Amino acid sequence: MPGEKDSMLYWLAKVTKDARERASRKLVHVGASADMDQSSVSRFEKAAAWPRDPDRLVRAYAHDLDSDSIELWEEAVRQWRASLSSDEQRIAAQADLEQLLEEQAGRRRDEQQRRRGKGGGAQGAGGGQP
Predict the structure, then answer these.
(1) pTM assigned to the model
(2) Which of 2, 67, 82, 100 could be joined to 62 by an S-S link, Cβ 3.0–4.6 Å?
(3) Which of the two residues, 1 and 42, has the higher pLDDT score?
């Protein structure tokens, strides 16, 4: 069911929407940054559906808000954890959340490497030593 508080979708949608609204930005701004239509962004913010590429959309929020995408993911995880009522639920969710954070950190490293590769030329590639 869309919008359930026990899903990452709910918390990520909440965090990104709250940040966008605090910055007085509109859905159309995020949609343009993500190259997505406004209705797709709206469905995400209502926690009705994951976008095809959630990383791209969260990066668009971060870009539009002059923030970092990993901070949005981390805040969503923090709020989700804080919402859990029992230790058992926290323990059950912790492994999934840690895996998600590891995946996001890996994507961030990959993105940083791609950025360095675009502007850095062939640094450190070979060295020419016999």
Answers:
(1) 0.65
(2) 67
(3) 42
